[in-house]
């Protein structure tokens, strides 16, 4: 979380999903963290990476938290739902996602730091 934004609460979440063949999941996890998550750590209020391993594939979900759509757009461009694929995504992903999901945060509690 940004030092200057510790007291800023997120109002929107940007959710990206992608699936990778099971035998490439560990390699993609490392790649995604270095090239996808680290840049978000610099710009977003917070970011989480989730992984579900299944028999044939693994699904990765990235959720980044933002103080406004405008702040998100400064990172993602004029259309914050537009995907910015990482250079090696076509090599790893079973299919390239076309959009991300943007949700308003209407309640938060627990140990997220925002409750």
From TrEMBL:
<dbReference type="InterPro" id="IPR011008">
    <property type="entry name" value="Dimeric_a/b-barrel"/>
</dbReference>
<protein>
    <submittedName>
        <fullName>Uncharacterized protein</fullName>
    </submittedName>
</protein>
């Amino acid at each position: 979380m940004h030092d200057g934004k510790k007291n800023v609460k997120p109002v929107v979440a940007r959710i990206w999903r992608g699936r990778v063949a099971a035998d490439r999941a560990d390699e993609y996890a490392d790649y995604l963290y270095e090239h996808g998550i680290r840049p978000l750590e610099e710009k977003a209020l917070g970011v989480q990476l989730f992984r579900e391993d299944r028999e044939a594939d693994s699904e990765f979900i990235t959720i980044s938290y933002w103080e406004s759509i405008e702040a998100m757009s400064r990172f993602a461009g004029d259309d914050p739902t537009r995907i910015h694929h990482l250079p090696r995504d076509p090599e790893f992903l079973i299919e390239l996602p076309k959009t991300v999901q943007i949700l308003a945060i209407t309640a938060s509690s627990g140990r997220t730091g925002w409750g």
